[in-house]
């Protein structure tokens, strides 16, 4: 089960970032004794040299990379630079990048392919916005995002991808956001699974984990466990070590109890 912390542009000082990471690490060892949880922290890239060191407790990811490996692109970060540090994952196509930076499906597809070529696991974000949801287009939007994002990604490569279903309107930074109800998350994951099945067949599509993101916190996380969800992409609640660890702890307890 994946627990991915997306710190976005937080915290705004290195000192706070170090503290947050230290508090997370201190608590993880107690909570994740079974090692069932794969915990991934995605801090702002500028902190990586000070934070991302190999360790047994958690892995690191970047929140974005440039769509090409090398070149004159002011302000961007190459995947090769990220690989200098202990980076195993990269968030690709987050809705905030689409919304504020006009990131297109074509760039998202290039980034996914670049990650795979460099053995970095892409966390491929998809999800409908409020307007699309209200006009009944969720299914169509999800299928199209999957189709475009996975262009020229073959059967062998696609197994390395994590799909993050994040309805845009459920992300806590959105105005009037609210967590998605678990039934509609289940419905969306069924659509995603079908789209993957059509593209890659049963065996391969069954190996692609789907995680959920959008206002997940320690009080609602258990509502999403079960169904097709294999983890969470957590924004604001990951900025508090206690909350982030509670999310992990509660989920693991429910999972372990469910296995008995
Ligand atoms: P949130 O963010 O948990 O604050 O809603 C999730 C995300 O944007 O990945």
Describe it for me?
By secondary structure, the protein is of the alpha/beta class. Helix content is 44%, strand content 15%. It is built from eleven helices and eight strands. Helix 10 links the parallel strand 7 and strand 8. Helix 7 (138-149) packs parallel to helix 9 (182-205). It starts with a strand and ends with a helix. The model has no long low-confidence stretch (mean pLDDT 95). Bound molecules: 2-phosphoglycolic acid.
* Beta-strand percent range: 15-25%
Major beta sheet, specifics? Answer: 8 strands, parallel, barrel
Give the bound compounds: 2-phosphoglycolic acid
Radius of gyration: 17 Å
Tell me the number of strands. 8
Note the main attributes of this structure:
single chain; 260 residues; 8-stranded parallel β-barrel; 11 helices; 8 strands; binds 2-phosphoglycolic acid
Secondary-structure blueprint:
Blueprint: E1 2-6, H1 14-31, E2 38-42, H2 48-51, E3 59-62, H3 79-82, E4 87-92, H4 95-101, H5 105-117, E5 121-126, H6 130-134, H7 138-149, H8 155-158, E6 162-165, H9 182-205, E7 210-213, H10 221-224, E8 229-234, H11 241-259
Parallel strand pairs: 1-2, 1-8, 2-3, 3-4, 4-5, 5-6, 6-7, 7-8
Helix pairs in contact: 1-11, 7-9
This protein binds 2-phosphoglycolic acid.
The site of 2-phosphoglycolic acid has 13 residues, from strand 8.
Give a quick rundown of the structure:
The chain is 44% helix and 15% strand. It is α/β, with parallel strands linked by helices and 260 residues long. It starts with a strand and ends with a helix.
